[in-house]
Amino acid sequence: MAHDYDLIVIGSGPAGERGAVAAASLGRRALVVERAPEPGGAAVHTGTLPSKTLRETAVFLSGREHREVYGVGVTIDESLFVPKLLSRKKAVVRLEVERIKRAFSAAGIELVRGSARVSGPHEVRIDSEHGERVVSGERILVATGSVPFRPPEIPWGDPDVEDSDTILQLESMPKELVVLGGGVIGCEYASIFASLGVKVTLVDKRNELLPFLDRDMSEALRVSFVAMGVDVRFEDSPEKIAREHGRMVVTLKRGGRVLCDKLLFCGGRSGATTGLCLEEVGVKLGVRGSVAVDEQFRSSVPSILAAGDVIGFPALASTSMEQGRLAVRYAFGGKPASPQESSLSKLLPYGIYTIPEVSCVGLSEEDAIEKGLDVVAGKGDFDHNARAKINGFSMGFVKLVFERGSRKLVGAHAIGDHATELIHIGQVLIGTGATVDAVDGAVFNYPTLSECIKHAAHDALMRWPE
Question: Are 296 and 336 in contact (CB under 8 A)?
């Protein structure tokens, strides 16, 4: 049966864009449907880029990296900060939207604005300002991303209650902020606002920050937060959220009341599948509307694929890009281009844009031990790094985890300025089977932060059991 397109992509975020471009590179006809006025999805418009732009603006305007080194005192003009932030955010978004449009045009990908719903294993109905259009495709890729989870017990009607999307539309800086939820998004915003002098209270039900991290990283992040003035409250949650004398008051279950100007709820996100009619055509949905997929990103209906935030964890732009590309490779090529490509694609780094940054790839020390591996870990501290001293980076370290028997690197972790850049060296070392001896014997430029990787390997060797 002939179809209008080889691939119909619903959503133009990282997974949708990369999937469509991958199809075009294989000589396939691709159509991308996007309901928003411009392509890019949440990553460009409400999530990744805007929040990271906020972070970099906060770091720059707060003078965090330079005030201790050069004795520069920085005072933030609150009346100017928000306009400058919004202006910078718009500029970054505009540039990225233009890049995506050029990529689609160069690849011969058709982009249509409209709301899509799946009406069959190979059929999509598109509602646009020009009416309804029905198209068919050999494969359909659902890449609609996610939306903030909004539980009913939170008073969303209050203008000072925000989620991770609406907080980016703030019109003025709050004096006091309560962040409910210590996940990735909650931690990022808590540190960003704290760096700008906002009094931040971070409340989380768990007993540690980001428990999927190596424990040393999680604890170092907590210590950094406390040093910035963040009031971190573990194993607690709100019992009541109300207004008293015009201010928000959060009453906590473990006792105590916290007053704030703004409340930010970061309780995770839900798959953006409402209105797609996926279940009606037999697609099985998982937790919070996510699409259940197999290892080749096929849903319970083989012709319907899904990738990106809509399939759940880890829900990062970087992983979404790879998922979209691999989904199309599997669908039209049968397998990735090479065994190396397949294995490396499973070794995905995590970048957490808190202040300071945290990043990791491979196994944590705890996970490795739980898997039965005999491991040796080593650290390379910023305190002993010349480049860190030059730049004034006061806190940070790299941690490497090696398997004792094979001597190979199985996990790399970093916290501090530029951690999300440093981690890629660890990613390649793990992927190529580098040993502790190879890393320790490598020559790194001096002075560079990358030397922390060499120092971590040397530290591991110093700890190596006879």
Answer: no
Count the Cβ atoms, other than its own, within 10 Å of residue 160: 16
Distance between CA atoms of residues 43 and 97, nearest Å: 11
Take residue 186 and report the two structure tokens written for it: 């909650």
User: Domain coordinates of the chain in residue numbers?
Assistant: 5-147+270-345, 161-267, 356-463
* CATH number belonging to domain 356-463: 3.30.390.30
**Whether 8 contacts 33, CB under 8 Å:** yes
C-alpha–C-alpha distance, residues 185 and 47, integer Å = 9
Q: Tell me which architecture the domain covering 5-147+270-345 has in CATH.
A: 3-Layer(bba) Sandwich (3.50)
The set of residues, in sequence order, having a beta carbon less than 8 Å from that of 340 and lying 6+ positions away, is: none
Q: Mean pLDDT, consecutive 10-residue segments, the chain of 466 residues?
A: 92 96 95 94 82 80 57 58 71 91 96 96 94 95 94 93 88 91 94 91 96 96 95 95 91 93 93 95 94 95 96 87 93 66 68 94 97 97 94 91 97 96 97 97 96 97 91
